[in-house]
Write a structure and sequence with these properties.
The protein is α+β, with helices and mostly antiparallel strands. It has helices spanning 3-6, 21-34, 60-67, 72-79, 115-124, 136-142, 173-185, 301-311, 355-368, 377-403, 411-418, 423-435, 448-457, 474-493, 498-509, and strands at 12-17, 38-44, 82-84, 86-90, 98-102, 168-170, 190-193, 196-201, 208-213, 218-220, 223-226, 240-242, 251-257, 268-272, 278-283, 288-294, 321-324, 328-330, 334-335, 338-340, 346-347. The chain is built from 15 helices and 21 strands. The longest helix has 27 residues, at 377-403. The protein is globular, with a radius of gyration of 23 Å. The structure holds flavin-adenine dinucleotide. Residues 17-23, 43-45, 48, 50-57, 195-196, 227-229, 231, 233, 252, 254, 291, 323, 325, 342-344, 350, 353, 355-356 line the site of flavin-adenine dinucleotide.
Length: 510
Amino acid sequence: MSRVQQCADSPLRVVIVGGGTAGLMTAAALTALAGRTCAVTLIEAADIPIIGVGEATLPHLRAFVARLGIDETAFMAATSATFKLGIRFSGFGARDSDYFHPFGDYGPDFGRAEFHHYWLRRHAAGDAAPLGDYGIADMAAAANRFARPEDMQWSGEHDTAGLPYGYAYQFDATRFAPFLRDWTCARGAQRREAQVTRVVRSSENGRVLALEIADGQRVSGDLFIDCSGFRAILRDEDLWEDWSHWLPCDRAVAVPCTAAGATIEPYTRAKAMDAGGWRWRIPLQHRVGNGYVYPSAFVGDDHAQDTLLAALEGAPLADPRVLRFRAGRQRRAWAHNVVAIGLAAGFLEPLESTSIHLVQAAITHLIEHFPDAQGCDADRDGFNRAMDAEHDRIRDFLILHYHATIRDDAPFWTHVRTMAVPDTLAATLELWRETAQVARYGFGLFKPPSWVAVLIGQGMIPRRWDQRADAAPADMLARELAGLRASIADRVAALPNHSATLARVAASSA
Ligand code: FAD
C-alpha cells in the first residue's frame, strides 16, 4: 500500500503555487495517484510567464506519461513531440571531436566484464571501431532511424545484438503545461488564476497556514508545494548552495526557427562553442528549438545572440529570449510544510536535459514520503536526503562534460579543464583512470553506460581494463565484435526512418 493510500481517512489539502512544467506535473501526479486522498488546488499567476524552454527530456518521462494513463500518441500530437535517442556532443573533448550519449547499453557483457572493457582491449590493440558502433540507439541516431523498441519484432531477444535501448521526447514545452492543465482540471484539481501576494505563517513553528492572493482572499492548506520557479516565493530561509564555480554557464539565449525542410533527427545536438558554453538544437515536428548556453564571465550577450542567430538553419520564429540563472540548489527543499519542486528548488543548467527529470524525481520521492496533516520529520528528512543525492549525482555528471576536455583554445575551456572539481567527481575520475570502473548507485542519474559514453567519447581512456575481458583469445574477440557490429548494423537498417515513424504515430491519432 502506498503512503498516499495510507492517509485516505484524512484527505490532505495540497496547495501548489505555479503553473509551469513543475507545478502542472506535480498537480497531475497528485491528482492521479493520490485520488480522493488529497485535494489539490493549483494557484498560478497569468501575468508571470513560465520558463517553458525545456524541450529535451529523458526516458523517464515516458513512464510519467504512461503512469497517468495518458495516451502517448495524444501527448505527442499535443506537444508536437519527436522521439529522442540521446544527445550528440560535438567539440567537448577535442575541438573536432564528436560522440553520442545514447539512451541504451553498449554490447553484451559476454557473461563476464561489462562490454566497454572488451572494447578497451580491442582499442589498445588498434581496432578503430568507435564504442558507438556497439549500441543500437547510437547507430540508429546516426542513420536517422527510429522505432519504439516494443514495436520491433526482435525486441526482447537475448542474442548478443538484442541490446536494450530507450527513448525520450523532444517537445514544445509551452504546450506541455497547458496540456497537463486541461488533463488535471478535468480530474478534479481546483485552479485559481491569481498572484500570491503574502504567505501567512504560524509564529510558533514556521508552518505555512495560508496564502493570500491578489483579491485579498486566503487559500489555506496542509501541504504547500512551491513551484513558483526562480522566484521561490514560499521560501523563508535562503540555503542556496552555489555551484557556479563548477558550472559557470549562467545565461542562455533561446530562439525557435522554422525547420525549412531540415531532417527531423531523433536526437538533440549539443555543440561546444569556441568562446565558451554550448549550443543546443532540438528538432520538433513543427520547428527547431535553438539556444546558446553561455558563461557571462567569458561571453558577452551580443556575441552569444549574434552567434546563435548566424547558426540558425531557418527563419527565426520569435525574438531571441535571454534567460539568466545560477547553478546550484536550495538545501532542505522541504522545510516545515513547504516542498520546493522545479526551478524553485534549484537549477544546474540545460546540458543533458535533467531539469524536468528532477521535477519527476521530486514528485516520486514526495509520494514515497507523503505526509499526513501533522507532518513528520522523517518524511521531510528522507525526501531532502534523496533530492540532495539526485542533485549531487547530476552535478558531477554535468561538470564531467566540461572538465574532461583537452581544449586549450579559449580561456573558458582552459578554466574548466584545470579547475578543481568536487571530491566525489575526483574519486569517480580516479577510479575510472585506474580501473575503467564506474561505481553504481541505488537510484538517480546517471547509470554506468552514460558515464562510459562521455568518458570514452571525450577521450579519457583508462590505464587498464577489467582482467576478465582478457579471458577470450584475441582473434576470437575480434571476430565476436566484428560480428556484433554487423548484426547491430543489420538491425538498424531494418528500422524505419524517424519521420516515417512520426507520420505513422500522427496518423494513428487522427
Ligand atoms: P516556471 O516555468 O518559471 O513556472 C513558474 C510558475 O510560477 C509560473 O506559472 C508563474 O506564473 C508562477 N508564479 C510565480 N510567482 C507566482 C506568484 N507570486 N503567484 C502565483 N504564481 C506565481 N529542462 C529540461 O528538462 N530540458 C531542457 O531541455 C531544458 N532546457 C532549459 C533551458 C533553459 C535556458 C532553462 C533556463 C531551463 C531549461 N530547462 C530544461 C528547465 C525547465 O525549463 C524547467 O525545469 C521547467 O520548465 C520547470 O520550471 P518551473 O515550473 O519550476 O518554473
